[in-house]
Amino acid sequence: HPQPTTATRQIIISGQDISLDILANYIEKSATGYRPLRAYTGSLNSLISMYQGNADVVSTHLYDGETDTYNLPFIRRILVNHPYIVIHFLARQEGFYVPKGNPNRIQGWSDLARPDIQMVNREKGSGVRVLIDENLRLAGLSPSTIKGYDMEESNHIGVATKVLSGQVDVGIGIEKAARLVGVDFIPIIQESYDLVIRKTPENSALIATLQSILQADALRNELEAIGGYDLSHIGQVLDETSLHS
Q: What DSSP letter does each residue of 199-211 carry, written as one string?
C-alpha cells in the first residue's frame, strides 16, 4: 500500500559536509512528508551503511587511483545488486594544509615521506583517508615510513587546527577549512562530491524531491554564499541502475 502523504517518513542522510545540513533543511521544508536525520559518517562507511540498508541518501567523495575518477568505481563495487541513482552535488578542492608561507616547501605526496615532515591523517572510512591512501599507493610510499600516518583527526577543521598549532607540518583537506582556520592551502585535486540514493519504489518521491531541490536557485544561492564550492554541474545524474521487478 502506498504511504499516505500525511505520514512523516524518516530518512537518513549520511556524510560530513555542511552542505548536507543545508540540503536536509530544504528536504524538511518541502511539503513531501520527509523528516531527514543526519549521520556524520565518512564516505566509505556511509556506502557500506547503505549496502546494509541503514541509509537512504549518502554523500561520497572517494578517489579511485586506477581510473583517476571519483565515486562510481566504489559505488558499483559496494552496492552490487542494489538499485541506486547517483546525482552530482558539488565539487570541492582538496589539498595540503601547511603553515603560512609553506616553510617546509611541501609540493606533493612524496614530501610526506621526508624524515623532517610530520603529517596528520584522517579517520579510516573517510573520503580524505581514501585519497591519501590511494596516492601513497600510486607513489609507492609505505605508510610505515611516514611520520604521523597513525595520528587521526575526524574532520577537516581538526586537521587544519593541528597544522596551525604547529603540532604537525602538513594535513590534507578541503580549501574552506584552511580559510576558516588560517593556514595556507596547496590544491591537489578537484573532487566530485556526489549523492547516492537507493532506487526503490518507496524512494521515487524522495528522488524527485531531491532533484527539484538541486535544480532550484535557492539551494545553489545559499551554497554559493558559503563559498568554496563549484556548483556548475549540480543535479546532473551520473549513474542509474534500472529497477528490476
A: --GGGHHHHHHHH
Cell digits for 195? 549523492
- Count other Cβ atoms within 10 Å, centred on residue 160: 25
End-to-end CA distance of the chain: 16
**How far apart, in whole angstroms, are the C-alpha atoms of residue 114 and residue 40?**
33
Quote the pTM value: 0.90
pLDDT along the chain (245 residues), means of 10: 62 91 94 88 92 93 96 96 96 97 97 97 95 96 97 96 98 95 97 95 92 96 93 96 67
- Phi/psi at 223 (5° precision): -70, -35
Work out the number of other CB atoms within 10 angstroms of the CB of residue 158: 17
Kindly provide the residue ranges of all beta strands, DSSP E only, lying in 34-83, ordered along the sequence. Answer: 34-39, 57-60, 63-64, 69-70
Q: Is residue 118 within 8 Å of 147, Cβ to Cβ?
A: yes
Query: Comparing C-alpha atoms, which of 98, 76, 65 is closest to residue 189?
Result: 65
- What region does 155 belong to: left with phi over 0, alpha with psi -120 to 50, or beta? beta
DSSP E strand stretches across 28-83? 34-39, 57-60, 63-64, 69-70
